[in-house]
Input
Amino acid sequence: MKLTVLGCGDAFGNGGRNHSSFLLTDENEHVLVDCGASALIRLKHESIKLEEISTIIISHFHGDHYGGIPFFLISSLFEQPRKSPLTIVGPPGIKNKIYALQEAMYEGTGDKLDQLTITYLEYGVEPIILEGKRITSKPVEHAPQSLPHGIRLEWKNKVFAFSGDTSWTNNLIELCDGADLFVCECNFLREQAFGHLCYDELVERKNQLNCENIWLSHMGSEVLNLETSVFNKLDDGKKIIF
Output
């Protein structure tokens, strides 16, 4: 399995990083975890054909995590007409949220989404089973209106876990248990604030996270400027085989 980091920045683009978007690839199939506002630009930079992305998984309804979907969809309608089906997975209300965002950004295009074969699946208590993929979600601690979730994707005998945006919650322990790769947000260095994790707390709780590799994402300037870190720090364009 290969991870390509399309974007690992925070909402403010600290360090010049693009918004949250992670591409998982196995052979010719791609799964997109989060689709931040800059995702289409980064996909083109990586020469990824949108047609080959079978699934988009959204952690929560903030623009730096799902604001790139309208660009993805208008490209799939007009620039690279999509023939293959697409599945979009996300918090409850995902279909209505996407239609509303599409209309807000490109008025008159919402109804055109019906020209695409899109299946919308909502998180629930039970995992989502989708063509060899098992997607487990857990609520996390972020802006409640955004319906924040952490994600665990089991695919082709590999496990990818993603915290989404959150302050500490024990749900992270379950999400990353035995994961081959855990991408964890780390917005702050020492400040513990609702909605985001800080580096010092992650170091303190490191032994509770049972996974092979932890990589930090969504870093603010203080974390980015750390000269030494207990954890690996992601950068846009980073590719990891796991």
